[in-house]
Amino acid sequence: MTKNIIVSTIARVVLGILFLAHGIDKLHMGLSNVEAWFDSIGVPGVFAYAVAIIELVGGVMLIMGIFTRYVSAMFVMVLLGAIFTAKPSVGLLGNGQMAGYELDLSFIIISMYLIVAERSPLSLDYLFRRKRDA
């Protein structure tokens, strides 16, 4: 295995864990509370459910290495939505009450890397591709 494969595998698994944790956090807060918060910032509340599902399911899929490129692309869209709807008023580093969008930018860069990175042999994507090519 090359260093790039090792790093992309670590990045994929860690990003998956972090998104899974964010999705679980939304469940613990209560999706109705998240929906109300989305409504309060001018985003239709139904998006709270979509974001929670993307974070939960997408996080698990990244950890396992399933549809990595597609999940990563969805994460980029969710993160850009967060930056442009929830974070403009708090800025890059936050305002003391809410985090800024520095972490979102980092997650976007990692997700973009995973979109173009070589498939890791430690993923189900790789396994399925090998079976299909055989």
Automatic annotation (TrEMBL):
* Gene Ontology cellular-component annotations: plasma membrane
The main location class comes to membrane
UniProtKB keywords: Cell membrane, Membrane, Transmembrane, Transmembrane helix
Q: Where in the cell is it found?
A: Cell membrane
Asked if the keyword Cytoplasm belongs to this entry, the reply reads: no
Q: How does it sit in the membrane?
A: Multi-pass membrane protein
Residue ranges spanning the membrane: these are 47-67, 74-93, 105-128
- InterPro entries reported for this sequence: DoxX, DoxX-like_oxidoreductase
The record's PANTHER family line, in alphabetical order, gives: INNER MEMBRANE PROTEIN YPHA-RELATED, OXIDOREDUCTASE CATD-RELATED
Family to which this protein belongs: Belongs to the DoxX family.
What is the name of this protein? DoxX family protein
